[in-house]
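Hi there,

I know you've been waiting on this one. I reran it after we fixed the sequence typo, so this is the corrected version. Both the input and the resulting structure follow.
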Amino acid sequence: MVLVAVFFTFAPIGLLIQLVQPVPGDWRQAVAAALVAGAISTAWAATFIFRRFWWLAIIIPLQAFGPWILFVLLARNGLIGRAGPDAVAGHRTLYAILILASIVVGYILMVRFARGMERQTERYRAELDIAARIHRALVPEIALRAGPIEVLGTSAPSRSMGGDLIDAVVRGGEVDVLLADVSGHGVGAGIVMGMVKSSARTLLRSSPPVDRLLTDLNVVLAELTRPEMFATMAIIRVGPDGRGEYGLAGHLPIYHYRAATGEVTELPNEHLPLGVEAEEVFCSGEVLVAPGDTLVVFTDGLMEVRNAAGRELGLAAIREVVRSRGGGTLEELRDAILGIARGHGAQADDQSVLLVRLRA
C-alpha cells in the first residue's frame, strides 16, 4: 500500500511537466510521463523500504537517461505527440484534474496505511503490556526468610518479557533456590522460561535430589524446544544447619562469600546447559554454609555489560563487589552488584541476581 501511495503521489510530476509546457503533449504522452515519474519514485521508495541499496546502481542511470531515450523512441514511432492548437486548453484542464485526483488517491492510501499501522501498534503495545504483566507474575521479587535462611532475588528483563528466572521454594526446613537464563530475548525466551519454572515446580513436589532435578529438566527442555533453545541454570538447596547441595548446568560459577575470612570462593560449573543434549547426566556438589556466609548467583547479563569503549564488566569486577560488600545486608550487596553493572554501561540483556545467606 505504501508503494502504491508513493506511485500516485509522485506520478503527477509527469503530468505537471506536460502542464507547464507551451504546448502540452497529447494524452498518450501525458500517460507515459506520469507512469515514468511514478515508477521512478516507487523504485526509490522500494530501495529504502527493502534496504536493497544496490538497486541504486540501476535506478540512478535509468532516471538520468531512461526517460529521454523512452520518449525519443516513442516519438519516432508516432506513439506520442503534441496536443492540437484547438485542444490545448482542454488538455491543460484534464491534466490539472488528473494531478489533483492522483494526489488525493495517494493521500488516501497513505492515511489508510498510517491508520492501519497505528492499530497494529496498539495491538502490539497491548500484547507487550500483557507479556510484562505475565513476566512480573512469573518472576516476582524474592525476599523470604525460612528459619535462619534468608533469600533475596531480583530480575530485570531487557524487554517487556525476559528469559531469566528466579525462584525459591520452601520445603520443610530446607529452601530450594533456582536461577535460570534462557537463550534469546523477548517473548520467545519468556515462554520457555515459564515452561522451565512450571516443570521445576512440578518436579520439586517429589523432593528429588538436585542432580536428578537437573537431569529431568534437561530431558523436558530437550524434548519440547527447538535445538537452538537452551537454558543455563543454578540450583542451591540449603538446610537450616547450613548443609547444602548445589547443581550447575552451563551457568556461571556460584560465589561463596565466607564471613569468617572475608574471602570469596567459587562453586564451578561442569555441565552443559539444559536442552543441549537429552542424554546428559548431571551431578551435584556439596557446600557447607557457615553462619553469616552468602551464596551469590547471577546471570551473564550483568557481567557482559559493555562501556562506551566496548569493554565488558567481567566476572572479576562482580567478584570484587561480593568480596568487599559481602559483609553488609543482602539489600546492600544486591544493590552494589546491580549498581556496578548499570554504572558500567547500558543494559543489553536480562539481569538477575539471587542471594542466599545463613543468618548468624
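Quick highlight: The domain at 140-358 is CATH 3.60.40.10 (Phosphatase 2c; domain 1).

Best,
R. S.
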